[in-house]
Amino acid sequence: MGCGGTHLPGWVNIDRERLPGVDLVADVTQRLPFENVEAVFGEHFLDHLEVWDALTFLAEVPAGAASGRGAPPVDSQSRLGVGDALPA
């Protein structure tokens, strides 16, 4: 997710912009374009999304399929208030 111009062999490389190395141009805040997902990898990806968009994205990823590196904790970007509803 959010591969930019970095192509990872063996993965479907997704970005919202058509760049060299991108296999699929998609806005992941509008749902994942797949029915079966074995694994999701993003490096410095979630920190580029609004908090609600990141939570919505993560809610769609099957349990155990998400992997990533380099994203700061959500609380360093924003704090959810007690009782705030998560996106549907």
Mean of pLDDT: 74
Largest sheet: 2 strands, parallel
Rg, rounded, reads 13 Å
Query: What helical percentage do the residues reach?
Result: 10-25%
The strand order across the widest sheet is 1-2
Strand portion, in percent? 5-15%
What is the tally of helical segments? 2
End-to-end separation:
21 Å
Query: Class by helix and strand content?
Result: alpha/beta
Catalogue the unreliable spans. Answer: 74-84
Number of strands: 4
Instruction: Give, in order, the helices and strands.
Output: EEEHEH
Shape: globular
Concise overview:
With 88 residues, this protein is of the alpha/beta class.
Describe the 3D structure.
The protein has helices at residues 51-60, 74-77; strands at residues 14-15, 24-25, 40-43, 66-69. It is an alpha/beta fold. It has a domain at 14-74. The strands form 2 sheets. Strands 1-2 form a two-stranded parallel sheet. A two-stranded parallel sheet has the order 3-4. It starts with 13 loop residues before the first strand and ends in an 11-residue tail after the last helix.
